[in-house]
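Final report, closing paragraph on structural work. Over the funding period we assembled a curated collection of sequence-structure pairs, and we close with a single example.
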Amino acid sequence: MALRDFHERHMRSLRAARRRALEFGVRPLLLRPRITHLHGPAHVDYGPDELLVITVVRNGALYVKSFMEHYLGLGVAHCVFLDNGSTDGTVEMLREYPRVTVLQTDAPYARYENTMKRYLAGRFSRGRWNLCADIDELFDYPFSDRLPLSGFMRYLNTRGFSAVVAQMLDMFAPVPLTEVASTVDDRLKDKYTHYDISGIDAPPYEWSEPSNPAIRMHWGGIRRAIFGTGNGLTKAALVKMNGRVKPFVNWHHATGALVADVSCVLLHYPFVSAFAEKVQDAVRTRRYGATTSDEYVAYADAMARNPRLSLMRPSARCFTGLEPLVDAGFLVVSDAYLRYIRAS
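Its predicted structure, as stored:
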């Protein structure tokens, strides 16, 4: 029995080593020649108190307007997109905005997702901060109405932080999914107004050193309540590429970082009118990999069982800003951060 256990542990170790070699050694070399520059500067100079946004995107036309208006309004220095085969005009729409670079690759997303994101972070933000946000995610930080983005970045730098946890907040319209009608001119915040944080588990955050134990890992939420999926809702969304931090570990986390004592939000808008089509495509192609593809199967099954499926429950709330999320403990702010806000 002991010999068999040793053999199984040894084989697991070998498989893990092969995966690491493939992920960090082979795939980066295979990806680089498959990337084409389409638009914007090939190099971005920005300061230590500025922020670069990096995004891997495919068929994000319904989100481009809201995404660009949000991040340009927030004051980010530049947005870099790696398009992965869009056919809906996403690239053409992105070209119309300032402070944008667009690259393109045909590499399969299921195998290269993390490699693509590491490529963008390593190429464009060495020694600087980047925010990795999907095209359906709008980032915000507590008291952004009082503190400009440069001030928030200065807070992170002066305290030596190198990663910031962001909690995903799934946003939805207060109607059945089949009644949602989306256009490229939509402002997501105006149409998808509700959220539900009643069913979130919050064990300790474990990937990097937390400076505030109140910052937790979030699991579940409205998608588990409605679809039965075990979604992770926490990302190390902001990372400083200082040479010690390793981003995109287990997809959404970072190791070797000092995690900030304030958590932020990613307003997440998956439930647009194209949601059902995206689900069917994901089930058919398994584009998002084995684990996540099972999640899309659960979405498809739930919608097939209930064509009038709605995410509205008595525990749903209308979004009015981040302060109610802080009051509810969904987001965390430290005493030091509150003092910084009062002094700003």
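The chain has two domains: 33-135, 136-344. The radius of gyration is 20 Å. We thank the funder for supporting this effort.
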